[in-house]
Prior knowledge:
Layout: H1 7-22, H2 35-54, H3 63-87, H4 94-129, H5 133-156, H6 160-171, H7 177-187, H8 192-209, H9 217-228, H10 230-239, H11 248-271, H12 279-302, H13 317-326, H14 330-355, E1 363-369, E2 381-383, E3 387-397, E4 402-410, E5 413-422, E6 427-435, E7 440-450, E8 459-468
Parallel strand pairs: 2-8
Antiparallel strand pairs: 1-3, 3-6, 4-5, 4-7, 7-8
Helix pairs in contact: 1-2, 1-4, 1-11, 1-14, 2-3, 2-4, 4-11, 8-9, 8-10, 8-12, 10-11, 10-12, 11-12, 11-14
Amino acid sequence: MIKPSYRDLIIVLVLTVASVAWLSIPVLVKYPFNIVPYFLLLVFLSGYSLLAVLKPLLYRMGVVRRVIYSIVLSLLLTVTVSLLSVFNPSSIAMFVVIPILTFILIIAAFIRRRTSFRRAVLDNIKEEAGFDEKQILVERENLGQQLLDKLELEVSGSKSDEKLESLQSSSKEEPVKGDENKVKSKKGFYAWDLVLIGFFTVLTVVFILTPVLSGTVPRTVLGLFLILFLPGYALIAALFPKMGDLDSVERLALSFGLSIAVTPLVGLLLNYTSFGIRLDPILLSLSSLTILLVVVAYVRRRFTPSEARFRVDFSGFFKSLGAGFSGESRTGKVLSVILILSILVAVSATVYVIVEPKVGESFTEFYILGPGGMASDYPTNLTSGENGSLIIGIVNHENKQTSYHLVVTSDNIAQIDEVVTLNNQQSIMIPFNFTAGDPGSREMVFNLYKLPDDSNVYRSLHLWLNITASTGGNVTG
Length: 477
């Protein structure tokens, strides 16, 4: 069966997913590693997907023309999104809009190419046959009239009874083989792949929402499966219910790619609702969408002729993959290898981003508060011998356990000299009481060292005291 090639669109989809995943990895997001994904997203991929929507059969176009048009359209899209973000500061960042827009355009390009290819095939058949639709209708009418005339003559003849008996006996003959298979296929229609998709979706919801199971390893595996595969497979099954629509490699690639594309879109829509981007709304929305797509795919397959209906032969699935690969041309084999490698890179990078979330900036909060625990009412105006109090706060955001050396001095006299060890995200509040000394202006210095470096000050604070005369004395802790 002749069918269109979706290989270029799948490669664009996988490269888009890989670029987004690349930019989510802290080690690779730095210069010069980030040049490659930025270039692909802003200068080529978005334009190619738009060109594929405008020209559905662009794979028949020359490579040079495709590249030039893709670059031009990509730059136009990038400039347009940049202008929108400048005039509307509340809009989404450009590096979020461009990938989402690319995903949407790729899906639209798949649908457009499929319909355009079918239309082109029909036009070619009509052209080769040498007559148009009107001629076909005229021929049908002439043939039908001839059959009716012949039937009337036979019935009116002397052997009409014998003819009628023969017609009756012929009507009792065995049904056509295709019709018999169709009846059997309707009675015994089981879409086991869709049943498994629905089962794993429900199982994921159970594992995540059940407290006893939420901390187990299967919960993590099922969660990744829901994000990376299930919704995309259900969407592909709903869009392409026939066996010849896509081959095995294309179905697998699109299942991964569209799953990764659907999940951010669901999160984006939830962000503008009262539910927000939280675990429970995302889980229920994504699982409900997957179940809905499974139902749609089941209905579309049921009304598809049995000989054209897509089915998964689990025993011979990998054999069909190998057979399809061996039957391709040299260029097709190269593209298949690139596609498989791109899928592996995209899936691996996405799994890494999910399992190892992006580490934020490492820093330490260091501050002083007044006696009431607020950043006000500091004891800056005192008389000699009067007592003052402060609160010293330290919060560890270094993403690891850290030891600090706290030193507080006044007139080069140490008031506090101690070592504090804090776990990540742990904080400590240290009360500090002192007595004002001689009149005059005094500077109190708060130095914090991050060990093992005890020579360079990591954080430093200063508090100026205005001490008036009352009774003499030195500052003491």
